[in-house]
Design goal:
Layout (H helix, E strand, L loop, with lengths): L1 H10 L3 E6 L5 E7 L18 E15 L11 H6 L6 E2 L5 E2 L3 H10 L2 E6 L13 E7 L2 E14 L2 E3 L4 H18 L10 H5 L7
Antiparallel strand pairs: 1-2, 1-4, 2-3, 3-6, 3-8, 5-7, 7-8, 8-9
Length: 203
């Protein structure tokens, strides 16, 4: 249940900003606009919406490419992302999973190009029980990871998976306060995730 909540918290309005790691031992995928409450980085700033998913001992890592509209990324886009040359890439809300191994196979099959950095494609057909996974498309690019374990991090440190539900609920309470203050004389500091999560019919 916690990982399903995390999926929603990332994919609703989140974006993929970076990745790093020695993929033979660890790979870290970083996101912004995540709907989990975390402390602001400085006074007068909104809660920090960045988190990282750190996968230890990966058995499979592949970067995916497809054509969307007129967008056909260069084959070197993973390195371009590491050099901050791609900008923030919005996560496709219905194409992000931390729980569904079948979705990983679908993503592989739908990719025009698959750049495997660790393991081989057959790994995705025999994912061990208890493995940690991630699969997503962010427009024309994507990634698949299968690993031994997953750690969830923000600037304050490691987040216990059992805290995900409460941090997600706390973010929604903050979101309500954000919009209630929006047209007052004391609005809260502008927050990307709140601005693009538009209130409809809430009390």
């Amino acid at each position: 249940m916690s990982l399903k909540i995390l999926e929603s918290a990332i994919a609703d309005v989140g974006y993929w900003s970076w990745w790093t790691g020695d993929v033979d031992s660890v790979i870290q995928i970083e996101f912004g606009g995540v709907q989990l409450w975390s402390p602001p980085l400085a006074e007068g700033k909104p809660p920090n919406g960045q988190i990282a998913l750190r996968f230890d001992a990966p058995s499979f890592v592949a970067f995916l490419t497809r054509t969307t509209g007129d967008d056909t990324p260069a084959s070197t886009w993973p390195e371009m992302m590491q050099r901050d040359e791609l900008g923030n890439l919005g996560v496709d809300e219905d194409q992000f999973t931390l729980t569904d191994t079948g979705r990983l196979r679908e993503m592989l099959d739908s990719a025009a190009a698959v750049d495997v950095r660790v393991g081989n494609r057959s790994t995705v057909d025999r994912i061990p029980e208890g493995a940690s996974i991630a699969g997503m498309w962010a427009g024309a690019v994507g990634i698949i990871v299968v690993a031994d374990s997953l750690r969830i991090l923000n600037h304050a440190g490691e987040i216990d998976v059992n805290q995900i539900a409460s941090l997600h609920n706390k973010w929604w309470e903050y979101w309500k306060s954000y919009w209630k203050s929006k047209d007052t004389e004391s609005p809260m500091p502008r927050d990307y995730a709140c601005e693009v999560t538009i209130p409809i019919g809430w009390d």
